[in-house]
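Consider the tokenized backbone below.
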């Protein structure tokens, strides 16, 4: 028997006999993904949809994060309608708005 094959066979048997190290909820937390969404004037940017699609390809639960002034009624509501997102975290604050080309 080739040593590599023997090592793989031993690993397979060991994984079946050993109890799982994590319960399902802990494993789900480890496999979750945070997608940071970009919005302008209350509308999600196309790059945000790409970020969500990439996060979904990784598998596991996907949480979206969007921040800005007045996002809870606009961008966050739009993100909540996207299939495949488990949660949308919205931070509504004027601190994210630009003032004369600069951030506060």
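A designed sequence for it:
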């Amino acid at each position: 028997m080739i040593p590599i094959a023997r090592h793989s066979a031993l690993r397979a048997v060991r994984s079946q006999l050993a109890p799982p190290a994590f319960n399902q909820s802990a494993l789900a937390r480890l496999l979750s993904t945070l997608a940071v969404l970009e919005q302008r004037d209350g509308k999600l940017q196309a790059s945000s949809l790409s970020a969500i699609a990439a996060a979904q390809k990784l598998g596991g639960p996907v949480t979206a994060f969007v921040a800005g002034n007045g996002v809870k009624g606009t961008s966050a509501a739009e993100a909540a309608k996207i299939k495949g997102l488990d949660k949308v975290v919205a931070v509504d604050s004027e601190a994210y708005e630009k003032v004369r080309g600069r951030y506060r």
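Strands lie at 33-36, 39-40, 43-44, 62-68, 87-92, 98-99, 102-103.
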